[in-house]
What we know:
The protein has helices spanning 2-8, 16-32, 39-50, 55-64, 69-87, 89-103, 153-158. It is mostly helical. Helix 1 (2-8) runs antiparallel to helix 2 (16-32) and helix 5 (69-87) runs antiparallel to helix 6.
Amino acid sequence: MLRDNLRLLQKGSSTVADFGRKFKAICDQLAAIGHPVAETDKCHWFLCGLGPSYEHFSTTYRALGTASFRELLAKTENQEIFMLSLHGTQQLSVAFTAQSHRSGNQSRSNPNSSYSNRGHGRGRSAGRGHGRRPPHCQLCRTVGHYANLCPNLASFAKQDAPIDANLA
């Protein structure tokens, strides 16, 4: 019955983080009773539960091969933030702040905090937002913000996709 619940679980209107917690809780219950779920099954059922709004993401992820469920969950949360940035900036700031708070990394919600004295060492703390250099936008190529917070993000998102022949 738990395995059926896992297969039938749907994200619906909940966030990816909430859906992931419910999904993982059922997986943990199955493991606790001696019926652990294989990583490939976790990834497959999780992708199925995301629903049609994640169809392209799910197809791409499956084509690239599955890694761990933990990695899939992190990538899906990032995709949710990206999709929110394309379709609504007010929702983006709420989701981005919630993810930053949950991960314990307050500087990710405020790109200007990269100037702080925290995290100058190597390892996990040396990631984005903790270096000595200010953030650099990959879209407009200016210093001071990341692409997800670019004031020109909407105009870049509306541009036509490049023709495959010109990608090389």
